């Protein structure tokens, strides 16, 4: 299914509570958990609160924001965020559909046997790289850092803090990514032996792993570009990277599969990583040039501060722990019958689509939360995160109901062709139903961890919470894999991530954005009940028609109708910002036609 500064010397201290600001010698405001008082409706429209520190006089030509403070751009409105979320969701849907085509092609060309299992062991590398370097890891550290740099640029800091941040971090990170990729390629035989000791054909997995090792560098650079663009509120290029990546893998499999076998898919992973960087680089260069051209203060900038090692270590360890669930699953499944790893993989790919779509809003609003904390506005950050939880939880519960109710029909329609048999469909559907029970916790974990790292400070509580979940996954999986097979491993995954989500929610008041845990839990009661009723009704309806497409369509309509009738959907007030651009579409089209 994937977050981290500088400041020249001058009269103004940095308002961002980031480690880089601290490295520059500026005090970091500590927003206490009880700072917020009056609840606000979820949304970013609330004006920014008073700055935590006195701002310097605005630089000549600086754009003045609320209360006369210099501002590089106005605070994002609900309409802007809704459009960005819809754009990101649309491109993510396209990427998810291409991901299904990729998995369908893999199943059609190579089935669900030893060749596919060997590739999926090598697929662990891009999975980890995407989580660590694009989604949950590096972005947690870079987006708050870029937000802090943008805030300092808006207050008229000397030089250009954004360009100074890039100069101080990108070369070092790129060198580290390259070194890690080379080391991984050299250690491929030992890595395969550790990940899947029971694999029938380890040599094939080693070859594929050496090809996919190149994505450590390409994904790292892609993640850096993505974090920079999101902090600048540019979401088009970052949302398109998985589209080009999947296109490269699909093309490579069909073009070279007959000659190279499953190694062609690994080659596609390597080529797609390069395309991910190329898709974003023009936008990043454009933003850096735009920022330089608008500067009128020619004072020299301070030297770039060193990387915040504790913060970077905390976010990367969290992402590593979270992604290690996949390692546990494949390690335990490697000792089962051939195809178990593939069944787990296909089940996860389909089940995670609702989770991915439900988190699009939080992906867009994470820079908003980071900027609010950089400005000292804790209340706006809290209302934004709570609103994201409310909307995302309802969306993922609707998707969970559909996945559980329609699992056999979905897997059969998507994968049952070529070398993928009816037995594979039944096994994958059974795994997917159990795995889907953890989707709500997966979504909550992805949103809540942002509230810990959005302030740009190192905190180890998320790592401890994730480690507890991993321990539960390992313990339960080791006990159930022998008797329940892949289904037992999926149950262990769901139980472990649920424990992590509970711990993260319990700890937000003291360590992250101070959420009201009781209110969040109470808000989940009705959509949970609606999801349960929709699952039962949709499953009964889907089993009636004899044709799979008819059963799938009837079951999906039933799930949606029952979920809405039982009150599981967000209220009109919560959906209004997202629906406003849709409502205004006819007027915009009419205006465009009449003005030609």
Please give a handful of descriptors for the protein shown.
25 helices; peptidoglycan synthesis; 2 domains; disordered N terminus
Structure, described:
With 596 residues, this protein is mostly helical. It has 2 domains: 204 residues, no CATH class; 256 residues, no CATH class. It has 25 helices and no strands. The chain is globular.
Count of DSSP-assigned helices? 25
Average of per-residue pLDDT values: 76
Q: What is the strand content?
A: under 5%
Low-confidence stretches: 1-74, 572-586, 588-596
Structural class: mainly alpha
Shape: globular
Radius of gyration: 24 Å
Number of strands: 0
Helix content: over 70%
For the largest beta-sheet, the strand count, sense and barrel status come to: none
The span between the termini is 43 Å
Q: Helices and strands, in N-to-C order?
A: HHHHHHHHHHHHHHHHHHHHHHHHH
Count of discrete structural domains: 2
Subcellular location: Cell membrane
Transmembrane segments: 80-101, 173-199, 211-229, 235-255, 262-281, 395-415, 435-453, 460-483, 489-507, 528-548, 554-576
Membrane topology: Multi-pass membrane protein
Organism: Streptomyces achromogenes
């Amino acid at each position: 299914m994937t977050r981290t500064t500088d400041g020249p010397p001058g009269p103004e201290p940095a308002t961002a509570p980031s480690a880089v600001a601290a490295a520059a010698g500026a005090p970091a405001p500590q927003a206490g958990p009880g700072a917020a008082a009056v609840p606000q409706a979820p949304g970013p429209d609330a004006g920014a609160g008073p700055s935590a520190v006195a701002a310097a006089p605005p630089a000549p030509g600086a754009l003045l924001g609320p209360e006369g403070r210099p501002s590089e751009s106005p605070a994002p409105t609900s309409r802007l965020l809704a459009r960005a979320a819809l754009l990101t969701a649309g491109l993510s849907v396209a990427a998810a559909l291409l991901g299904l085509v990729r998995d369908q092609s893999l199943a059609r060309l190579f089935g669900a046997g030893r060749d596919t299992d060997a590739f999926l062991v090598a697929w662990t590398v891009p999975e980890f790289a995407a989580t660590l370097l694009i989604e949950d890891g590096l972005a947690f550290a870079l987006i708050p850092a870029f937000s802090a740099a943008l805030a300092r640029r808006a207050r008229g800091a000397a030089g250009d803090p954004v360009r100074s941040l890039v100069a101080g971090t990108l070369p070092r990170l790129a060198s580290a990514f390259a070194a890690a990729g080379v080391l991984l390629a050299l250690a491929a035989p030992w890595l395969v032996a550790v990940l899947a000791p029971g694999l029938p054909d380890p040599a094939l997995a080693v070859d594929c792993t050496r090809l996919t090792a190149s994505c450590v560098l390409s994904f790292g650079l892609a993640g850096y570009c993505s974090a920079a663009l999101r902090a600048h509120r540019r979401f088009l290029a970052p949302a398109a990277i998985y589209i080009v990546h999947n296109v490269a893998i699909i093309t490579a499999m069909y073009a070279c599969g007959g000659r190279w076998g499953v190694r062609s898919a690994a080659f596609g992973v390597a080529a797609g990583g390069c395309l991910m960087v190329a898709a974003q680089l023009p936008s990043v260069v454009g933003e850096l040039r735009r920022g330089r051209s608008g500067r009128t203060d020619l004072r020299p900038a301070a030297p770039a501060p060193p990387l915040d090692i504790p913060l970077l270590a905390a976010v990367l360890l969290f992402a590593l722990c979270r992604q290690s669930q996949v390692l546990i699953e494949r390690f335990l499944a490697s000792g089962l019958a051939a195809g178990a790893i593939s069944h787990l993989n296909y089940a996860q790919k389909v089940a995670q689509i609702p989770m991915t779509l439900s988190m699009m809003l939080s992906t867009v609003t994470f820079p908003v939360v980071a900027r609010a904390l950089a400005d000292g506005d804790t209340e706006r950050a809290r209302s934004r995160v709570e609103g994201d939880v409310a909307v995302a939880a309802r969306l993922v519960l609707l998707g969970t109901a559909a996945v559980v109710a329609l699992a056999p029909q979905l897997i059969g329609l998507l994968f049952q062709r070529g070398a993928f048999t009816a037995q594979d469909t039944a096994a994958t559907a059974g795994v997917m139903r159990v795995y889907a029970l953890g989707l709500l916790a997966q979504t909550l974990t992805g949103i809540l961890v942002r509230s810990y790292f959005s302030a740009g400070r190192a905190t180890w509580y998320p790592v401890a919470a994730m480690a507890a979940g991993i321990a539960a996954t390992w313990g339960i999986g080791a006990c159930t894999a022998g008797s329940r097979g892949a289904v037992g491993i999926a149950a262990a995954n769901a139980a472990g991530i649920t424990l992590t989500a509970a711990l993260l929610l319990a700890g937000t008041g003291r360590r992250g954005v101070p959420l009201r845990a009781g209110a969040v839990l109470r808000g989940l009661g009705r959509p949970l009940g609606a999801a349960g009723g929709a699952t039962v009704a949709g499953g009964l309806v889907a089993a009636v028609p004899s044709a799979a497409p008819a059963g799938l369509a009837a079951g999906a309509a039933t799930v949606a109708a029952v979920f809405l009738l039982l009150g599981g959907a967000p209220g009109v007030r919560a959906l209004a910002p997202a629906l406003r651009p849709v409502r205004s579409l006819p007027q915009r089209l009419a205006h465009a036609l009449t003005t030609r």
